[in-house]
Automatic annotation (TrEMBL):
Keywords: Methyltransferase, S-adenosyl-L-methionine, Transferase, Ubiquinone biosynthesis. Residues 1-16 have a biased composition (Polar residues). S-adenosyl-L-methionine binds at R50, G81, D102, M143. InterPro entries: Fumarate_lyase_CS, SAM-dependent_MTases_sf, UbiG_MeTrfase. Its EC number is 2.1.1.222, 2.1.1.64. It catalyses: a 3-(all-trans-polyprenyl)benzene-1,2-diol + S-adenosyl-L-methionine = a 2-methoxy-6-(all-trans-polyprenyl)phenol + S-adenosyl-L-homocysteine + H(+); a 3-demethylubiquinol + S-adenosyl-L-methionine = a ubiquinol + S-adenosyl-L-homocysteine + H(+). Gene3D superfamilies: Vaccinia Virus protein VP39. It is an enzyme of class 2 (transferase). This is Ubiquinone biosynthesis O-methyltransferase. Pathway: Cofactor biosynthesis; ubiquinone biosynthesis. Pfam families: Methyltransf_23. It comes from Qipengyuania gelatinilytica.
Length: 252
């Protein structure tokens, strides 16, 4: 099912959310995305934290057995802004039928190749989410994406339109604080831990702003959990929202 070149646009017109310069920036990173010591090293450190939150949210939402190795068996999942598939592949291993979509075709090509080599059946698509007639999904994720889109409200509405009845959405994004500006841009980008130009602090979204954006899209946001950093623990789930946070959302 892996297909990095699927376009299949629907006739639905919607606001454009992709910023071409952002897509080009991330597309240039495609070849190194799966290298844990490469330009996406920070994402490799972040992914286990996301998955810890996701697993708990999945078990709570569907009242699953925490011992079940495949809690998403029989369910569909859509990862928007999937990059080269760092989250799609664990979702597939959790049992989901997974679709990943990304603004950069270089990323979906890399994702499809890696999935094929890993023996995973994942569908990948490039372009605007609204341009693809792909139905709805039990789980919709968008990790570190909303801060990169041109129209945050349109993007949230497009995500909501892809969420099936009774489904679960999970998003993560940097908070717009002095701490995030200092650490994520000044330090992380300044010292090369994150590629320069990845983040624009003015585009970061506070939890209060995200709650309002999701509400306008017909979604109720859950209690946010912080993704914090310390020298002892590295990146970890926390009550501290000042750097980055992750939330659930459900249809009202």
């Amino acid at each position: 099912m892996s297909d990095a070149t699927t376009t299949n646009p629907s006739n639905t017109s919607a606001g454009q959310t992709i910023r071409p310069d952002e897509a080009a920036h991330f597309g240039k990173l495609a070849k190194d995305w799966w290298d844990p010591k490469g330009s996406s090293a920070m994402l490799h450190k972040l992914n286990p934290v996301r998955l810890e939150f996701l697993r708990e949210a999945i078990d709570m939402h569907w009242a699953g057995d925490i011992r079940d190795a495949k809690p998403l068996a029989g369910k569909s999942a859509l990862d928007v802004g999937c990059g080269a598939g760092l989250l799609c592949e664990p979702l597939a291993r959790l049992g989901a039928e997974v679709t990943g979509i990304d603004a950069a075709p270089e990323n979906t090509a890399a994702a499809a190749l890696h999935a094929e080599r890993s023996g995973l059946d994942i569908r990948y698509m490039a372009g605007e989410l609204a341009s693809h007639d792909i139905g709805t999904f039990d789980l919709v994720t968008a990790m570190e994406v909303i801060e990169h889109v041109a129209d945050k409200q349109a993007f949230a509405s497009q995500l909501a339109a892809r969420l099936a009845d009774g489904g679960l959405m999970v998003l993560s994004t940097p908070n717009r604080t002095v701490r995030s500006r200092t650490l994520m841009i000044g330090a992380a980008e300044g010292f090369g831990l994150i590629p320069r130009g990845t983040h624009h602090w003015d585009d970061f979204v506070t939890p209060e702003e995200l709650s309002d954006i999701l509400a306008e899209a017909g979604l109720t946001m859950g209690e946010p959990r912080g993704i914090a950093f310390s020298p002892m623990k590295g990146l970890h789930l926390s009550g501290d929202l000042s750097l980055n946070y992750i939330v659930t959302a459900r249809a009202r």
